[in-house]
Amino acid sequence: MKLKKSIFLSLFLAFAMSQVHAQDKKFKIHTVAFYNVENLFDTINQANYDEEYLPQNGWTSKKYKQKLNNLARVIVGIGTNDQQKESPTILGVCEVENKGVLEDLVKNPQIASKDYGIVHFDSPDKRGIDVGFLYQKKHFKPTSYINVPLYVYQNEADTSKKEEKDAEESDKPNVNFDATSKRIYTRDQLLVTGLLDGEEMHFIVNHWPSRSGGEKRSSPYREAAGRLNRKIMDSLFKINPNAKIITMGDLNDGTYNKSVKEGIGAKLKKSEVKKSGIYNPFEQMAKDGNATLFYRDSGDIFDQIMLSEPFLRNDFSSFQYWKAGIYNKQFLIQISGQYKGYPLRNSPSEPGFSDHFPVYIYLLKEIK
User: Fold this and answer.
1) DSSP letter string, 48-91
2) Does the residue 260 lie in any domain?
3) Is the pTM of this model over 0.70?
């Protein structure tokens, strides 16, 4: 009996000491986030289809500044909690009109002290909405960046008069469609490579083709976007099989769609991710009923952040994936009316936040 007690006590003490040791460990935490900022337009008439967001149509300087204030309020809080007090170190965005609006955003008093740098390219999207990349200069140093165009063309199946008539009746005219070349002009995919506290990482920011004309009709364009995303990642893996890659964006598809599951090859479980594989933490979140946007009372997760296999090795001597989340605080939610429970969206008449909730992940590294 005494021997059993002695063994039990030894095991208990060993376990207790291991727990104390684990608690003594300290980690550096960085938040990586993505936010569709929904129509961040200035008040200046540009060479694009921005008429809806001009002073003569109600979009005034005062409303523009309020929109910037709203977005900054969100950005400063994304991912913050008891463990993480800092705003996102890395933030991918989409639906920005130009680099100027991002410059105005990072100067906002609520986030100016974060000293965000900007990577932006004008995309061929004729509405003038682009993707962008913000980073805290004290932590991230870009070493290269490039915009990779997505070439998609109208499918032959799309040319039937019935489908064209249905699309005209159900959607606004597609200003991004060139009737002569049949090309659909959409956003580029932005690839940024740099050093996060000295460790090389690659980030891809996406805003895939919309569901204009219907999900099924437009699906081939997003499937092409998924294949392009995978092609970019494969080119990075060819250079370095252990490349740390994060791809993020508004994909206009769910975690279960072909563009994500087959195009990128994203996996539901960490255990399924092999060498050069990609893990999608938002797939389980979608299965659990979470959403980043709503349409006709149906929620889905179009905003996703996915990671390459080297982030999953649990070797915290370098940055590793910890967990993911959706930033859906109460002040971002419509509290009454027809769209109660939806994100408190933006419009020319009322500067809100966005029709999407931001998403984020945490990266951890042990401090020796």
Assistant:
1) SS-GGGSGGGT--HHHHHHHHHHHHHHHHHTT-SSS--SPPSEE
2) yes
3) yes
